[in-house]
Amino acid sequence: MAVIEKALNFKYPHGFSTRIGGVSTGVYESLNLGMNRGDDKELVIKNWDLFRKASGITNEQFVCGEQIHSNIVHIATKEDLRPAYGPGFMNTADGYVTNLRNVPIAIFTADCVPLLLEDSKAGVIGAIHCGWKSTVADIEKEAVTKMASLGSDPSDIHAAIGPSIDICCFEVGPEVISAVSDLLTEPADDLYLQKENGKYMLDLRGVVKRRLEELGVLPEHIEYVGGCTMCNPTRYWSHRYTGGVRGSQASIIMIP
Ligand SMILES: [Zn+2]
Prior knowledge:
single chain; binds zinc ion; globular
């Protein structure tokens, strides 16, 4: 049984995966959902079956794509649906939104912040890969704007910020702090700690939360799900902890 984590306040089927409860072995043990990490294809397909089932999504096909740390958010349609390792066009995007039923949308992470969005009033969802590069490129605004184009009001959006590298482990250079300060309207100095070596520890989940609030998502509609990926390497895939030899988490949501 795939071990997943869930938002308390979501109505639609969804899940954030951990690395527990899958069938992969070796460095991919056990719930690897990454399709380009070098793992055995049949085992990853089985892992996707286990993950979707645990998330309450029985649909065989879903939407995912190649992530490039951009601010590209794609409005997903039925044409984008495919099974794991399915044939055909694979999107290049770091996020998906849709207002269509039975179109599961998914993104991959292993330290970056996975963000799921749900407006059950308008019937619009989002799955967004928020690394620091995508975040300072304002992928949060792209997501909220594209959800609004499908009829969603930001004050009706619920946000779940999933397992990712936290301020305890996320060391960054001054250029990242500068870009975060440029992104946010309010001062960001409560979202990072300066170190003696000239580096900083950054609360990237806090940056994502702050940006969502600036875009009109209500603070009481935003929740954190799960813990720090790097502090918990047996529970989560962490790119930094493993030096990049690893599987991937996925986060998925669907309007039933
Ligand atoms: Zn940590």
